[in-house]
User: Fold Oligopeptide transporter from Linnemannia gamsii.
Amino acid sequence: MTDHKQEYTAEKYFIDEKVDAERASINLEEEENSPIPEVAAIVSNKDEPGLPVMTFRFWVMAVLFSCLLSFFNQFLTLSTLVIQLISYPFGKFIARVLPSGPLNPGPFNIKEHVLVALTANCAGGTAYSVDITVIQKVFYGQDFCFLANFLILTTQMLGFGMAGVSVVISSTPLP
Assistant:
C-alpha cells in the first residue's frame, strides 16, 4: 500500500477585476450567482458604486423606523420584515415628494432600502436591562429613577453608534 500525497498549489495568476474586466465578469456571473433560480433572476450580482447611500432620506427613514420598531418590540414582537415591506413604498413616496437637490439626489434605490432595513434591524431588539428595572420596581418596590434609565439609554446608544459606524465603513466604496 503506497501513500500518494497530492499537493495542491494555488493558482499563480489571479484575476484582477480592474485589469481583466472580461474574465472577471465571466467569473463573477458564474461564482456569485445564487444557486436558487428565483433569487438569481431577481437579485443582481453587479454593484453600482454610483448610487447614493447616505442620503437625507436614508437618515430620516432609518431613525423613524428604528424608533418605531424598538418601541413596538418593547411591548409586542414585530418582525423586521414588516419594516422591509413598509420602508420601500415610503422611500419611493419621499423621493417623489422631496424637491430635487441635495436632500433628494435621485430615485430611491436598493442600497438605501437595504440600509434602512439593516439599521432598523439593529435597533429593533429590546434592551433586556429594562426587564430588570421593571422587575425591581414591580416585585421589590425599588425604583432606580433616572440613573438606571440613563445607563440603559447610554449602553443602547453606544451599541447602535458602533453599528452605525460599521455600516458607514462597509458602504463606503474603496478608492
Notes: Residues 56-171 form one domain. DSSP finds seven helices and no strands in the chain.
